[in-house]
Amino acid sequence: MPAEHVLVTGGLGFVGSAILHALLNAHPSFKTTVLDIKPTPLGYKLPSGVNYIQADLRSKSDALRAIRGTKPTVIIHTAGYSPTGSARYSQTERAQVFSINVKGTENILHAAREEGVKAFVYTSTCCVISDDLDHDFPNMKETLPTGRATTVYGQSKTIAEHLVLSVNYPELATCALRPSVIFGPGDTQLIPTLHACIEKGETPFVVGDGFNLTDFTYVDNVSHAHVLALENLLGPKSAAGEAFFITNGQPIPFRDFCLAVWTEFGHIPSYEIRIPKTLAWFAGSILDWVTWMTGKEVTLSAGSVKDAYGVRYASIEKARKVLGYSPIVGLQEGIGISCKDYYERLNGK
């Protein structure tokens, strides 16, 4: 494969930096550039030979300036914003979410078409389907219709994914990857949130029956899939115009994943308290009001209850057949690596 110039947006972030390193390992001859809204952290050094450009993709002129200045042949667009905590289940950050996830994607796509970029891989999310929190989604396939997400994040990523796939032409091949919940070294959301449950004394509580299957995806599997998608769009192009679910291929009861994480930190709940779904939702709704009135964040909310008992896992058969994707790190191994990383971060190592 001839040398290409790949631009990774959001390349300083958790997922973006993993994609960058996977790309460097797979194609060391490629020229690579990181684009991010953040300046490089003090003392941080990008890998040798990697260029950096700071730009705000919410600005159409900024996006065009960045692409004209770097002249990439391929873009991996992973920059985005996901609300956390109670904001995930409300519309309080709608303007910010849409400005980054939708307008930012629209602007980078416009610049890509203007400047002759030939391949565009978009980091979408399973949330374009599974963030319809009122329904279960067992064994999701790409044939399911989008547009029913109830969260602002799922809604914004649905629109952005549609924008990406709708501009797939011979001159610009595009595809979208839909990872499930991502974890790994550097994770700032999933593992830290579950670890915090230990100190809060929340680990004994089980919402529903605890057997609801959920997908989790180790970050190296996500980055591996992006490299495969890039190679496909530069080669056979059988992925052009398509979306693909990317997971570990190991759906696990949500409760079992939590227990596996807590065990890595030496904690095993000595008892369990099972809370019926209806009662948990009612309690979460009350605590939503407490959060709104006091401004203090609580773990439980009506939305988080639905997340905790929902059935959400996807088939990766399409990714296997078209991209040749197969997870390279198993779930248990990934949990061990991630928890060790977070433990070392907590202890300043």
TrEMBL record:
This is NAD dependent epimerase/dehydratase. Keywords: Oxidoreductase. The keyword Repeat does not apply. InterPro entries: 3Beta_OHSteriod_DH/Estase, Lipid_A_modif_metabolic_enz, NAD(P)-bd_dom_sf. Residues 7-275 form the 3-beta hydroxysteroid dehydrogenase/isomerase domain. Pfam families: 3Beta_HSD. One of its GO terms (molecular function) is oxidoreductase activity, acting on the CH-OH group of donors, NAD or NADP as acceptor. One of its GO terms (biological process) is steroid biosynthetic process. Belongs to the 3-beta-HSD family.
